[in-house]
Amino acid sequence: MSPVLKVTPTASSPDVFELVASLAADFATRAAIHDRDSSFPFENFQALHQAQLLNLTVPQEFGGQGANYTTICKVIEKIASGDASTALVLTMHYLQHSNAARTRNWHPTVYERLCRESVTGIVLLNAARVEPELGTPARGGLPATIAKKTSDGWLITGHKQYTTGSPILSYFIVWARTDEAEPRVGSFLVPRDFPGVRIEKTWDHLGMRATGSHDLILENVLIPQEYALDLHFLNTSLAPDPLKLAGGSLWLSALYQGVATAARNWLVEYLHERQPANLGDSLATLPRFQTAVGEIEALLYANQRLIYSLANDIDQGEYDTKVALQAQTVKYLATNNAIRAVEIGLELIGNPGLSKKNPLERHYRDVLCSRIHTPQNDAICLSLGKSALKITT
Questions:
Q1: How far apart are CA 158 and CA 145, in angstroms?
Q2: Locate the Acyl-CoA dehydrogenase C-terminal domain: which residues (predicted)?
Q3: Res 133: pLDDT
Q4: E strand or H helix at 250, and its extent?
Q5: To 5 degrees, how large is the angle CA 63–CA 314–CA 265?
Q6: Domain spanning 16-122: which CATH class is it, in words?
Q7: Alpha-carbon span 152 to 213, nearest angstrom
Q8: Helix, strand, coil shares, percent, the chain, to 5
Q9: Pairing of strands 214-223, 153-163
């Protein structure tokens, strides 16, 4: 059972991270069960709401905390050390609110209402972009999801995959194109409780099994005109907000740093407890094991420096036009380091590391999911190469 929270510190108070650590420890007690059953951790989000941690990226003017990048990284990392699936849903919720706050391309009344709902209740949102035919939109192409304009609003019809957090989401930000003679593309705010919205339970994944990343089916869902968020014609080039891109890469890096740290912590405890009869002492006393743990420490230290130095630069306003690519570089390095850190633990202890009774096996499956998130490794390296070679096409 999640702890009852009588006093809730704000993001700027010194004891907020102590509270987050307490929640993460509680989430860790149920993480294996949710992973095994592929069940959604609703109780974790009740606890996060009680702690006022769902509103960290909601602007202060609407009752949120408007937390900075460093604070968000720390919260995500610690929650991920307890339950990676909970942290991923939370990260996506943070990202959508942060993105909306930066662009302000929503109808002002709709945006303020959503913000205030997110402060007072368990009201989460996430984007719905990937489709069966198209795959990830990061690779190009147009959505098959159609928005038809009517006198009453927009009729949305389509099929989305990998909708992280679908069991608890109150709103979906759906990427679609219009059926106009000259199509426009953009996002549409679709409330969960509108007629025609259906969740098809398809999520059966190697890792992040408790995220409820099911398929979203939309069948002539009628939404108000003002729920269209950022419509633009196909030949219109929209300059991406570099800080929006940076946030996604940095916060995902922090998440998988949390997973790798949890794996390291378990490994250290295991090496102290494990005393083979022929050794007469714990595995922690052997130089080979000490060296391997040292390699893990080096990888995690590098991640910590990479993630938080850039987050601090952003918070201090000390960044340049390449901040998005820099954050993507951090993601490339930090997630690869996180995977390698967990792999070293597996190589070190053999079969116990792959036993389902031990959390290292779950941490490994979860950390591998870092390779899936946009931007993926090849896209990051391509962008880095073009930048170094000064190729703009």
A1: 4
A2: 250-374
A3: 86
A4: helix 242-273
A5: 85
A6: mainly alpha
A7: 31
A8: 55, 15, 30
A9: antiparallel
Tell me the per-residue pLDDT of 321-341, one tens digit each, with 9 for 90 and over: 999 999 999 999 999 999 999
The tokens for 341 are 């850190």
Which residues of the chain fall below pLDDT 50?
Answer: 1-9
Q: What residue ranges of the chain are covered by domains with CATH 1.20.140.10?
A: 242-389
Task: Enter the pTM of the model.
Answer: 0.94
In the chain, the amino acid numbered 140 is G
Rounded Cα gap, residues 74 and 77, in angstroms: 5
Residue 230 to residue 223: CA distance in whole angstroms = 15
User: Within a 13 Å sphere around the CA of 233, how many CA atoms are in the beta-carbon half?
Assistant: 5
Beta strands in the chain (DSSP E): 124-128, 146-150, 153-163, 169-178, 184-191, 197-200, 214-223, 232-233
Is residue 115 within 8 A of residue 235, CB to CB? The reply is: no
Cis peptide before 375 (omega within 30 of 0): yes
* Backbone torsions φ then ψ of 117, nearest 5 degrees: -65, -40
CA-to-CA dists, residue 26 to 153, 249, 260, 320, angstroms:
44, 27, 18, 40
127-233 is classed CATH 2.40.110.10: yes
Helix (H) or strand (E) holding 43: helix 42-50
Element (H, E) at 20: helix 16-37
Closest CA to 90 of 120, 32, 131, 46: 46
Chain segment 229-239, per-residue pLDDT in tens = 989 998 876 77
Phi, psi of 315, deg, nearest 5: -65, -30
Q: Residue 252 and residue 335: Cα distance in Å, rounded?
A: 8
Span(s) in the chain for CATH 1.10.540.10: 16-122
What is the third-level CATH fold of 242-389?
A: Butyryl-CoA Dehydrogenase, subunit A; domain 3 (1.20.140)
